[in-house]
Amino acid sequence: MEDRGGRGDGGVRGDGGVRGGRDECRREGAGGAGSVDVVVVGGGAAGLNAALVLARARRRVLVVDGGRPRNAPARQVHGFVSRDGMPPAELVAVGRREVEHYGGRVVADEVRVVRRADHVPLGPDAAAGGFEAELTGSVVRARRVIAATGLRDALPDLPGLRERWARDVLHCPYCHGWEVRDQRLGVLGWRPEAVHQALLVRRLSDDVVFFAQDGRDLDAPGRAKLAASGVRIVHGEVSGLVVEDDRLRGVRMADGTVVGRSALFVPPEFVPNDALLTGLGCRRDDNGLVRVDANGRTSVPGVWAVGNVVDPRAFVVAAAAAGAKAAVAVNADLVEADLAEDGLHVVEGAR
Ligand SMILES: Cc1cc2nc3c(=O)[nH]c(=O)nc-3n(C[C@H](O)[C@H](O)[C@H](O)COP(=O)(O)OP(=O)(O)OC[C@H]3O[C@@H](n4cnc5c(N)ncnc54)[C@H](O)[C@@H]3O)c2cc1C
């Protein structure tokens, strides 16, 4: 069997562009950029860790990244052992360098659509069939796809909230709770999970207010838990935030009163960036998330999905781990595909 080595330049230019076109793909053969073993869509922790493992397994891997990791507005990453306190941009910059060190390629671009391309010849070493990923002005052909496209945090429509996001409007007690410990904290009760969040936040401070928003989504058991935990419930509608000297000072109520707070926790609604996956026909589970197995395999053969796009609660370290696990599964899948292509038919019982 020929060496399918993953160290070729993949045909991706150093300036971030990808050469495209079917003819060029054929011309470049195994090292061609238009044709890779695996295209990873999304270059956050999940996608980069998948690419790192695949590149080290000598797979030709291309990461296409739109450059908007979910935690970009945050100053630091917390809760990732050995990386605690690292700025998010630095974490992905280090990850990109590590992928490139092993011959993987990372380009700044958006994948607009991924199509099945069973009819497309993928080059001399390609498995039968594959995928076409359409970038801005170019097309990449890949034997396998890993989607690591993350999610969007939808927030309530409250004036000034988005501007304070990841500063003193926070969502994750594990990510940023320590930094606001012992302060006057609030939790906005706009979604059912806000009660649970308030119970977590209560561990950080003795002074926690739950803004009940006229009791919306606050049932009797929730009310009892908050009371038992010493969380103060404030009734009435929240109308905005009070910000002075670039710091949150309080939460303004519709009746004009201000409840002094220095940080407000708001559970976002998670909106997965999964259009590429559903466009390929990937099935969703009962929670509306694209369904994957323990290694990120979707219902569509050849397509994996990892990180926040399928697991909204995955921290950076968990997203990275999911990427690594999927890479191992994809590499194993390709090893079998390589054998099948080479005409090896395992006799039943000889396994
Ligand atoms: C404000 C904030 C702070 C956080 N702080 C922490 C923390 O301290 N510690 C922690 O563990 N977790 C933290 N998190 C959670 C953390 O952001 C996620 O765990 C992590 O980003 C998930 O990684 P991911 O690779 O799945 O997705 P992301 O990091 O979001 O990466 C997805 C990437 O895919 C790209 N992309 C999407 N669609 C396409 C496309 N079609 N084509 C090309 N590229 C595409 C995006 O541009 C993005 O770069 C925080 C979250 C938020 C919102």
UniProtKB/TrEMBL annotation:
Pfam families: Pyr_redox_2. It catalyses: [thioredoxin]-dithiol + NADP(+) = [thioredoxin]-disulfide + NADPH + H(+). This is Thioredoxin reductase (NADPH). Its EC number is 1.8.1.9. It is an enzyme of class 1 (oxidoreductase). Residues 1-12, 20-29 have a biased composition (Basic and acidic residues). Keywords: Flavoprotein, Oxidoreductase. The lineage of its organism: Bacteria, Bacillati, Actinomycetota, Actinomycetes, Streptosporangiales. Signal peptide: none annotated. InterPro entries: FAD/NAD-bd_sf (IPR036188), FAD/NAD-binding_dom (IPR023753), Ferredoxin-NADP_redctase_2 (IPR050097). It comes from the Bacteria. Residues 37-320 form the FAD/NAD(P)-binding domain. Residues 1-30 are annotated as: Disordered.
